[in-house]
Write a structure and sequence with these properties.
214 residues; mainly alpha
């Protein structure tokens, strides 16, 4: 089986079995998604969704958060991972949004990455989810699942994974494919105990095929 064929089979399976695939973060506008994604770094979406309602009620816009202090924001996000640095980044990012972008979240990766605490993964998520752009964000789930399935080979870092994935995934599918792979890794192809016996992708999975040959 060629890499191209493996991609075709796997993408077709996802399309048939997971036609709706969306972010599990709760948000109502681009600013809220940006904040939620920043908070989700090394933290569960479930935990983020627990803290954002009060945070968004207190700071509904970039302009209002820009007026806050780090300690103000910290009160709302103390239960997420790395709360101190995230509070600092959120305030700084909000200030740049207010001062440079008139409170609007940029619609491109380059400008998004000028915001404090926003790296390529976060920028890719925002562009894909809000503007349906063909940007592939790679987190630990996608990095792991892509290598196991055989969609990537010997990928050493998220950027290498991203480049290998976008080579074969049609641009119109990339935003949804991000969620397909992420959710598959979160609930099926888990790090310690992948559920291979019940996985619908086992037929084309390099990890499962190699495991059977041992």
């Amino acid at each position: 089986m060629t890499t191209k064929q493996r991609f075709e089979h796997i993408l077709a399976w996802f399309e048939a079995n997971m036609p709706v695939a969306e972010s599990e973060l709760n948000y109502e506008n681009p600013f809220q998604l940006l904040v939620a994604v920043m908070l989700s770094a090394q933290c569960t979406d479930k935990r983020v969704n627990m803290v954002t309602p009060a945070l968004f009620a207190a700071y509904p816009t970039a302009e209002t958060m820009a007026q806050a202090t780090k300690d103000d924001v910290l009160k709302y996000i103390s239960s997420v991972s790395y709360p101190n640095s995230k509070a600092e980044h959120l305030v700084a990012a909000a200030q740049r949004l207010a001062n440079v972008y008139h409170g609007q979240v940029p619609d491109n990766i380059e400008d998004l990455q000028t915001l404090s605490g926003v790296g390529r993964k976060t920028a890719n998520v925002v562009c894909a989810v809000i503007w349906n752009q063909p940007t592939m964000a790679v987190d630990t789930h996608i990095f792991r699942v892509s290598e196991r399935l055989g969609l990537t080979t010997d990928s050493k870092n998220p950027l290498q994974t991203e480049k290998q994935l976008v080579r074969y995934i049609p641009q119109t599918v990339i935003p949804k494919a991000h969620h397909w792979l992420l959710l598959h890794g979160r609930y099926v192809c888990q790090a310690r105990k992948p559920k291979c016996e019940t996985c619908g992708l086992a037929t084309w999975c390099r990890y499962k095929i190699n495991k059977n040959m041992q």
